[in-house]
Amino acid sequence: MDIICHTVGFERFRATPESQQELEDLLLAAEVKAALVGTSPNIEVSAECGKVRIKTRSLESQEMELTEKLTEIAKKLDGVKDVEVEISPILSYLID
Predict the structure, then answer these.
(1) Domains of the chain
(2) What is the spatial order of strands in the sheet that 51-59 belongs to?
(3) S-S: 44 plus which of 3, 15, 55, 65, CB 3.0-4.6 Å?
(4) By the 8 A CB rule, do 85 and 70 touch?
């Protein structure tokens, strides 16, 4: 235990503004994903300085509606400044 406490005192293990921002970005992406997963289960979310990028798949006919819904939910969360949604279409004839 003493070794760990001593080691974390080294400068190379201290938080930097960059590492702190990276953790904040990861936290924001996780919060957004948690809020959206019920709407679109197969979703990928990333964040960078408040800008959130959402990637998912949807039927072409539902793409616009889903984009609006995902954007609306994400923008309600603290820390979200901008939302970018990328939806890859699922062609309906592939489902039938």
Answers:
(1) 23-95 (3.30.1340.30)
(2) 44-48, 51-59, 82-90
(3) 55
(4) yes
CA 85 to chain centre: 11
Name residues whose C-beta falls within 8 Å of residue 73's C-beta, 6 or more positions apart in sequence: 35, 36, 39
How far is 23 from 83, CA to CA, in rounded Å? 19
Give one DSSP letter per residue of 14-66, joined into a string. S--HHHHHHHHHHHHHHHHHHHHTTT-SS-EEEEETTEEEEEEEEEGGGHHHH
Tens of pLDDT along 37-51? 999 989 999 999 999
